[in-house]
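Fig. S4 source data, part A: sequence.
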Amino acid sequence: MVNLWEEMETGPDAPDEIYAVVECLKGERNKYEYDKDIPGVVLDRVLHSNVHYPSDYGFIPQTYYDDEDPFDVLVLVEDQTFPGCVIEARPVALMEMDDDGEKDDKVIAVPVEDPRYDHVQDVEDLTDQQKAEISEFFETYKNLEEGKQTEVLGWEDAQAAKDAVEHAMDLYEEKFA
């Protein structure tokens, strides 16, 4: 079985086009995580707060971020896919976030193969409502977990997202190559 984090390339044209491995599904409260030792997707927990993922959420292969995890990505989709699905995606924004004192930024991306998102190229192409819903989710999804606190620090453009992907690729190479 292929290890999607270690054996799959970061993308067909990273950082401009990346692969997103879906763990958590739009509209659900289940927090799935890819377990590279199995390898496969396992149920990590059910979110304690009464919120649901605003879109499909997962990680970018062969990346490692400042929080010592694969780099997180939220892919805007109309319909949920499934845990383990690989989406070819285009980074359009970076949401800067603090999770219990650790930098835990999120790449916001759109599917390359969905014409409904062809016009979304950069952060200014996201609606204020989309950004508000994403921010609200990540600021509240851990509220009922004892001792957990998150804060969205701001939004950056597509170039910042691509720069962060390159940073995560470099960290992966330094740590695991």
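Fig. S4 source data, part B ends here. Residues 158-176 form the longest helix (19 residues).
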